[in-house]
Amino acid sequence: TAPNQPIECVPTIVVEDDRTGLSVETLKRAFQDNLFYIQGKFAKIATQNDYYMALAYTVRDRLLRRWLTTAETYTHQGVRTVAYLSAEFLMGPHLGNNLISLGIYDEAKQAIGELGLDFDALLEQEEEPGLGNGGLGRLAACYLDSMATLDIPSIGYGIRYEFGIFDQDIRDGWQFEITDKWLRYGNPWEIARPEWSVEVKLGGHTETYMDEMTSRQRVRWVPAEVVMGIPYDTPILGYKTNTATTLRLWSAAAAESFDFAAFNSGDYFRAVLQKTVSETLTKVLYPNDESFQGKKLRLGQQIFFVSCSLQDMILILTRQGIPLDQFHEKFAIQLNDTHPAIAVAELMRLLMDEHAFEWDAAWSITQKTLAYTNHTLLPEALERWGLGLFGTLLPRHLEIIYEINSRFLEEIRLKFPGDNDRLNRMSLIDEAGERHVRMAHLACVGSHAINGVAALHSELLKQDVLRDFYELYPEKFSNKTNGVTPRRFMVLSNPRLTKLITSKIGDGWIKHLDDLRKLEAFVEDADFRQQWRQIKFDIKQDLADYIKQANGIDVDPASLFDIQAKRIHEYKRQHLDVLHIITLYNRIKANPDVDITPRTFIFGGKAAPGYYMAKLIIKLVNSVADVVNNDPDVRDRIKVVFLKDYNVKFAQRVYPAADLSEQISLAGKEASGTGNMKFSMNGSLTIGTLDGANVEIREEVGAENFFLFGLTTPEVYALKAQGYNPWQYYNSNPELKAAIDRIASGGFSNGDTNLFNALVSTLLYKDDYLLLADYQSYVDCQDGVSRAYRDQDHWTRLSILNSARMGKFSSDRSIREYCKDIWHVKPVAIELKEYVQAGA
Ligand code: CR6
Ligand code: PLP
Predict the structure, then answer these.
(1) Strand pairing partners for 650?
(2) Which of 381, 485, 615, 699 is deepest in the core (most CB within 10 A)?
(3) Angle, CA of 162, 164 and 169, to the nearest 5°
């Protein structure tokens, strides 16, 4: 052999790489290394946050090979990719989830423990990225998890808000908002990619010019302002797979080159100050859930992230040498509600004005690429932009929308000759009063697929809000019932139940949630029921400890934990829950020895800062809590707790602890709900109306395992049509009257009859959400719940069956349906590559 040829004669000594090794020893070494070299701290001066960061970097290192291999594989193979466009991604903390996905949760826990640190405290240390309001943003996060887990090539595009959803404090019973400074101590999960920045134009005017190359008239947009978008990438690792996809969030910065004129004229200060104006674009998330606010800055945010994302997709193809006429073959873009619906006009503009496509070709690509998910039937949530504002910020887009509209109206005229009402109803421009662009219409026209988020909701879209569009394009419509990820909402948040389930049926259910059905075989096993009950009790005990520490209230873990946790909204009817509490209280006051099943009523949820009635509901809950919790007649049989600052971390804590999940919106108002699924998976029973996904949950778990009450959607319509009169219910129902009277007469406000006046009079004079009509049915149903809870063994059976039958509500099922019916994207397996030569 040649002298420089290696000879394999010594046994290889395996030293795990500090950045990839998964053993406890290696994790400990890597952790200490990161503490010193990344955080620049040693044990004596390190804070809890330093330790968290050291662990986070240790975990991130272990994601990187998967992430880079995934990106390289996708680029190399030019795969068809889902681009999920969403103004909100409510991710929740990353650390625990990544540990679960990597399969090293226990190893990390042991490593940290052996170093003498508190592992749970480190997990708790993470500031969650609260870049969403509620269900819609959390759905986007669950979908990213499922796409990665199912090996679907995908990328989430959104906005890197500097301030996410506000933190909620409660002072004197009222909500108090505090800015969410989530980036204060750094974000170890993101990597900035300034080299892939793009520019977005705003304002100004348009002009036509002769394009020399094609000898055609084209339009040029001369903006008043240019903003730079910088992408920040976060890896999204699938559960026990090599696939790690990307969440790419855009942050706004000043486009340096643009203000050259000001720099050159010596107006240095003005030019620099101008920068801060650009940067405000991604400063803060609008904290309104399901209520539209026509603010210019918000429209700016929408065009900003949409334009950045579309340009990014074009760049990805360009770098791969793929011509843009294949855009729709390479990307399936999902519009998460209408927040990104401006994509219809922006993709047209990019293709025509910047890449010289003709109208028809651009339109065909646009329609084939885009699909639209509607998330609400509430009229106040539908986005509509005044033409003045729209045209000032996006003059070119307005021209394009006019052109789309004129072609669209022509299509309707052909299909429905002489039907002028229909033209007016369907036009992209609302001509009544101040003229507006209707974003849902734009999304419908520009997409090849339109879906609702639960069976009932999709039906109501076809019958009501989007009826005209359904009549024109029936083939575009489908339903995709929401789902949630069992990785975060069972495995991570409920380790005890996960362990018990896995001990009986193996761990296949984590990726195939339908397997939970196998639990049904154990329902009659008394020992299993006992274990199930004990786990629920222990988790309730933990929540009781938390409540004691957070609110100073003693609650009994043996009492029925009745939880309503979600955004505060009149349509969700937290105040109906309160009317029930007051009814129980009145019964106790009338007869202190009345037989009552002990209950702990727990509320959580944020109100939009400008939504007075929602804030008043929070005040009411806290006021009722003060009275009920401190009345000796109650003898601790009922307790009321408002837990502040409902966010993902909080959600993970409360879902597993519930006996009863309150899903009591007025039928026809909640598009789907996803909290309902998370509770039920964790063995909570539901009291609910036939609304949103409740309908399907009930179908799955069986009517006998679900506490149903209230009017159905057709009954709601009928009652409203016939002229609803809340007084009729008030005057004829003594318990209802007594409950309302106790509020009105100052029973929860130290005699102040003014404080809750707005709430009381809304109920008596309007009651849009029919609380009074549903009250008796609700209270009767709650009495049934109380009776059922007394037979603990029977209750446990129902609890087990609820979990066992929730397979349908995995977001994996939802994503498979989107892939099959809308995106036509197939899984791509990732084979890991070595990027680093060991021992070189
Ligand atoms: N507020 C619906 O109200 C649904 C989610 C996700 C909502 C809720 O029923 O589960 O979307 N709608 O589909 C909007 O945000 C517009 C929500 O979270
Ligand atoms: N907010 C948070 C933090 C959540 O985790 C969820 C769960 O899905 C929601 C809001 C939505 O709750 P719901 O579906 O009950 O409106």
Answers:
(1) none
(2) 485
(3) 125
Q: Looking at 384, 573, 678, 805, which residue is catalytic?
A: 678
CA distance 519 to 522: 5
CB 558 within 8 A of CB 537: yes
Q: What is the ipTM of this complex?
A: 0.99
CB neighbours of residue 212 within 10 Å: 7
- Cβ of 566 less than 6 Å from ligand 2: yes
Q: Which pLDDT score is estimated for 757?
A: 98
- What tokens does 31 get? 């952790």
pLDDT per position as a tens digit, 709-723: 999 999 999 999 999
Ligand 2 within 6 A of CB of 651: yes
Task: Give the separation between CA 536 and CA 559, rounded to whole angstroms.
Answer: 12
Asked if residue 675 has its Cβ within 6 Å of ligand 2, the reply is: yes
- Look up residue 44 and give its amino acid: K
Residues 6+ apart with CB under 8 A from 670: 571, 572, 663, 691, 692, 694
Tokens of 248: 């790419």
Burial of 836 (0-12, 13-18, 19+ CB in 10 A): exposed
Contacts of 789 (CB under 8 A, 6+ apart): 560, 597, 659, 795
Residue with tokens 């195939």: 512
| pLDDT value at residue 16 | 79
Place of tokens 């105040």: 575
Q: Tell which atom from ligand 1 comes closest to the C-alpha of 134.
A: 18
For residue 646, what are its two tokens?
A: 């409902």
What is the residue range of 198's domain? 78-93+128-480
Number of domains in the chain: 2
Segments of the chain with pLDDT less than 70:
1-15, 257-264, 836-840
613 lies in a domain? yes
Structure tokens at 587: 């019964």
Q: Which two tokens stand for residue 258?
A: 């643009």
pLDDT 10s digits, 812-840: 999 999 999 999 999 999 998 777 655 43
Kindly state whether residue 63 falls inside one of the protein's structural domains. no
**Ligand 1 pocket: which of 453, 484, 678 to mutate (most atoms <8 Å of CB)?**
453
User: How much is the pLDDT for 839?
Assistant: 45
Residue 517 and residue 494: Cα distance in Å, rounded? 18
**Residue 513, in any domain of the structure:** no
Cα 623 to Cα 667: distance, rounded to the nearest angstrom: 28
CA atoms within 13 A on the CB side of 65: 17
Provide the CATH number for the domain around residue 84.
3.40.50.2000
For 632, half-sphere exposure in the C-beta direction (CA atoms, 13 angstrom radius) is: 0
Measured from the alpha carbon of residue 142, the closest ligand is 2
Q: What is the DSSP string of 143-163?
A: HHHHHHHTT--EEEEEE--SB
Query: Closest by alpha carbon to 148, among 71, 76, 241?
Result: 241
Q: Let me know: does 685 contact 586? Beta carbons within 8 Å.
A: no
Establish whether 457 is a catalytic residue. no
Q: Is 377 in the pocket of ligand 1 (CB under 6 A)?
A: no
Q: Is the dihedral of CA 98, 102, 106, 108 positive or negative?
A: negative
Ligand 2 and 134: CB distance under 6 A: yes
Q: Is residue 356 part of a domain?
A: yes
Strands (E), 664-761: 685-688, 707-708
The answer to whether residues 593 and 452 belong to one domain is no
579/704 same-domain check: yes
CA of 133 to the centre of ligand 2 (A): 9
